[in-house]
């Protein structure tokens, strides 16, 4: 088995990142984001939300709890309106799809590294133990 340097691994990670960046899911995400950025309704709602968020921060700072709660309710209503716009729904779904790919890659790498360590130490994949743990009993190791 070959040994690799950190640079080798980072090179492969960059290659993998380029592959992910050209998936259908990422392409859809980019298109959805472009549509969001040119949608007048989205821009209007985002502007209103940002203004209300600034108000909420000021009201909280001055401990105006009732007014702050009312502003938070307005923000929630505007967020719900924003979320009801189809292009926003598509954008959020595309974000989720891209995140799923990244999570899948991360879990696959993590699981494979663990499996490689177990196998390379003569361990048991089914038990999830490395070879250094073989021969140990629940009451203690007989290796001391």
TrEMBL record:
Transmembrane segments: none annotated. Gene3D superfamilies: YheA/YmcA-like. It comes from the Bacteria. PANTHER family: REGULATORY PROTEIN YLBF-RELATED, YLBF FAMILY REGULATOR. This is RicAFT regulatory complex protein RicA family protein. It comes from Fictibacillus barbaricus.
